[in-house]
Design the sequence.
């Protein structure tokens, strides 16, 4: 049997979802698999009454998750907003898995997303053979979510053209989707709602209209507040992804994670962690997600082309690729940071040399 590269989260964390469901006696909205308390417990982790340990999916402010879950119990849609790499898609996927047991009803927003992808399309063979009919309709994920009382996830909402975005207004306000060709409509079943994600850093961003903004309750997901919090996130995600990609657990990974996170936080904030020196910030977002990518790439290099132990040389190329997006301006900022900060830091001579060689 062929193993898939990545299971849906409702499959990957099936045991945890079932364990919470077994002890969850709190009131739950119609068609929800778990109560709001159960959803937050699944997202934030904890120990159940029966001793079962639930892993944390989101490491951050509990109140943000409570607001997000509470929003989905109302008739307001949820917009997860923040800079790239702040776990917006990760949170939306886990919310859908915990609430309706299905995270696969997704519209991926791009500059080319059409109105048919948001509403419905047509099977042209059926259309030519029988004319307009319900059998000839190709349902979008949004239409399927409405008719089944599930959550629809819309990724990168602000990448979608403004006229296509506004097709959501009727759905979110009236809770029905007109099918003009058949003089019919699809009415939303209880449990239906929308979780959208968006950021304002990508090129090609389309601002939401005021009418559409009013249909969403916005929760801003921040970058990790502390060094320790970000290290914990990177360590956990590197371990999880390493298992999925069959990469070995690296005993030296934590030390390198701390160095990568330190570099990212200093360049992101424009000041060293001790507050003594100011540094210039590159154009890259340097998100937690990129730190995870740098670490996974380094572990893979160490396994396949090194001695099996993670070293500074293994993460140098990943650092360069993550930080230097503009080959002129970012390269100057990176070299200046290497010479003024990395070179002078105790115990960092190896990463300085490795990065200098790559640069």
Sequence:
């Amino acid at each position: 049997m062929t193993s898939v590269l990545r299971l849906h989260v409702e499959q990957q964390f099936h045991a945890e979802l079932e364990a919470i469901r077994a002890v969850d006696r709190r009131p739950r909205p119609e068609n929800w698999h778990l109560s709001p308390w159960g959803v937050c417990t699944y997202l934030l982790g904890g120990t159940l009454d029966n001793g079962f340990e639930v892993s944390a999916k989101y490491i951050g402010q509990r109140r943000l998750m409570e607001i997000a879950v509470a929003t989905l119990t109302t008739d307001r849609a949820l917009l997860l907003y923040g800079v790239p790499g702040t776990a917006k898609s990760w949170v939306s996927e886990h919310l859908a898995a915990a609430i309706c047991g299905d995270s696969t009803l997704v519209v991926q927003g791009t500059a080319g997303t059409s109105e048919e992808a948001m509403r419905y399309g047509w099977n042209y063979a059926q259309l030519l053979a029988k004319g307009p009919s319900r059998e000839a309709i190709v349902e979008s994920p949004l239409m399927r979510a409405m008719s089944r009382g599930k959550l629809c996830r819309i990724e990168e909402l602000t990448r979608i053209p403004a006229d296509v975005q506004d097709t959501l207004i009727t759905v979110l306000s009236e809770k029905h989707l007109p099918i003009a060709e058949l003089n019919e409509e699809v009415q939303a079943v209880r449990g239906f709602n929308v979780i959208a994600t968006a950021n304002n850093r990508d090129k090609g961003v389309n601002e939401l209209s005021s009418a559409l903004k009013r249909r969403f309750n916005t929760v801003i997901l921040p970058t990790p507040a502390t060094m320790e919090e970000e290290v914990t996130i990177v360590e956990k995600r590197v371990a999880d992804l390493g298992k999925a990609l069959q990469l070995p657990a690296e005993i030296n990974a934590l030390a390198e994670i701390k160095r990568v996170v330190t570099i990212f936080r200093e360049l992101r904030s424009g000041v060293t962690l001790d507050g003594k020196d100011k540094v210039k910030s590159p154009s890259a977002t340097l998100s937690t997600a990129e730190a995870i990518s740098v670490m996974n790439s380094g572990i893979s290099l160490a396994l396949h082309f090194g001695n099996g132990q993670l070293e500074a040389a293994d993460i140098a190329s990943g650092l360069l690729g993550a930080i230097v997006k503009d080959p002129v301006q970012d390269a100057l900022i990176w070299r200046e940071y290497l010479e003024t900060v990395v070179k002078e830091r105790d115990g960092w001579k190896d990463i300085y040399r490795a990065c200098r060689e790559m640069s």
In short: The chain has a mean pLDDT of 91.
